[in-house]
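Students often ask why we bother predicting the structure of a whole assembly rather than each chain alone. The short answer is interfaces. A chain on its own may look different once its partners are present, and contacts between molecules only exist in the joint model. In this exercise we take two input lines together and write out one structure for the complete complex. Read the inputs first and try to guess which parts will touch.
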Amino acid sequence: MKYAFQDLVDLGTKIFLAAGLNEEKAESVSRLLVTADAMGHTTHGLAQVPFYVKGLKDGTMTIEGEPEVLQDRGPTVVWNGKRLPGIWLAEKAMTLAAERAKKYGTCTLTMREAHHIGCLAAFLPAVTEQGMIAILATSDPSGKAVAPFGGVEPVFTPNPYAMGIPTEGDPILVDISCSISTVSMAGRLNAEGRRFPGKWVQDAEGNATDDPSVMLSEPKGTLLPLGGQEYGHKGYGMALMVETLTQGLSGFGRADQPTGWQGSVFLQVLDPEAFAGADSLKRQTEFLAETCRNVKPADVSRPVRLPGGKASVGLRAAKAEGLELYETIMKGIEPVAEGFGISMPSPL
Amino acid sequence: MKYAFQDLVDLGTKIFLAAGLNEEKAESVSRLLVTADAMGHTTHGLAQVPFYVKGLKDGTMTIEGEPEVLQDRGPTVVWNGKRLPGIWLAEKAMTLAAERAKKYGTCTLTMREAHHIGCLAAFLPAVTEQGMIAILATSDPSGKAVAPFGGVEPVFTPNPYAMGIPTEGDPILVDISCSISTVSMAGRLNAEGRRFPGKWVQDAEGNATDDPSVMLSEPKGTLLPLGGQEYGHKGYGMALMVETLTQGLSGFGRADQPTGWQGSVFLQVLDPEAFAGADSLKRQTEFLAETCRNVKPADVSRPVRLPGGKASVGLRAAKAEGLELYETIMKGIEPVAEGFGISMPSPL
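Now the answer. The structure tokens for the assembled complex follow.
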């Protein structure tokens, strides 16, 4: 069952309006959730609607207001997101950083206490379409699931780091977390009675395993950093970098022992015109993308792909032909919509 | 056999002077090579002397001159390194970026065609000592050893990415490459008849293996990206990011099909005073470091460490008590020094 892209955006917008957000915030959050679904990041798409609505109802997601500007020097900006909808904040921040980057060459914005900003890759095309490079990273100082290398207690969230890179064609969209997998993936696999493809988690004693249930049983296991028990110092290093950029530069984080779902955010836009030029950048990135696509694959039926390639194709297809969602996603939204007296869209 | 830190710096300086570099360049390159040794990065320390001298002799490393400024907007700078000694260029660039960051909040410098810049971590303490964050990444567009995820032909160099993070104590120094290992490590293990601790490389057909000899036999194998054949899309993504920042922004790279050992460089300094403040940054990073150190280790005899912790201790110890080098390193330098009539230092 497929739905029109805009019908899904309208559905989410109506729900968030009913939950109290204004039109601008409701539309931004809904559109970027549907964009995430279309890009294949289904854990960070409309599946979040029930959680966001719950947050708006219980006051853990702020309904009204603007981010507080803690410092603004032009090329550097710090916001307090005041637990406002993170997706709307991140889109607003990315728009500002892109404008500023055109003026200053780069713009770096850090934000403390946004709410959840969702799927990082969804924010990147707006910048790559302008021929610029976008960097976006986030962490949640109230959460911990990832162990430092050599340890068996959690310290970090998966701390994703993303970069949007313009080419002559579809952008390269890198979006990688510092842990091999995530808590939500462990939950999904566990519910489906499946296992990880490798030893991606460890139990509380530090035994690496592919069994996702160790993340749910007591004492709780931990997500392994990228590289696992073999060379997880690399993922550990990445986790420390993202914590520093998101929490350290925004001046609020684990040292404050905050509680409640939130997002600390680092974003940076780099304008190639302030370096060797936009054409020079695309010449290199297009050559690189083409080189990778032409590499002999290990399995002839699976050509080498570029990160984000499938997401761009998916997004175009969803806008042109509609979008299929996991059944469980629509089932999760239905009671929320019903509670507000909002009718579900008809499939195409 | 230990040598005084300064004696080793003097040895390298004399050799590079004899090979034609001026005092400033010779001292900078030598001091940072010895620093790399003291920090434990022994493949990127004095072991490089014979190769650098060879480069200076055959003209592949430029002896005289200054980098050409291709663009300078204040917070953004692009240099052509003209194959001048990369270590000297990188130190000079980092010094400039640190000065500029204090003025603009951040400074980003990209450089095409430097020569090899050596050990990334060695450049970071000069910035973290000023309470700022330093980012440094490099690639070599003339080299390729790392396969993209799903491919069996090489596209990338290991493309290291490093970040220096100030804390109340020793800095956190992250220095990670996008591949699990390196060509030089494969060579070292192969020479010693050893294997990688895991399946870190693959042969030309795409069979993952711990056998380093596949990197030397024909047809040549490839280094696997971080995550290997299981989740190497992550290391592949990192490799693309580093290529973009180093070659894309500097406007010279693989698209130009350059030949000969070189380094494309990206560096960025972020001054926390332009964000939430230097004290706020250190408050978060120190808390994080302390949290990690106190995490229960998987093996009680191996407490959780911070990246760069051992390097800082090693550097202090080397300066105070002297430095022990692999026998093969001094053996490699000896004929070079002899050729110039330079006597080797006496051990302590």
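Check your guess against this: Chain A has a mean pLDDT of 97.
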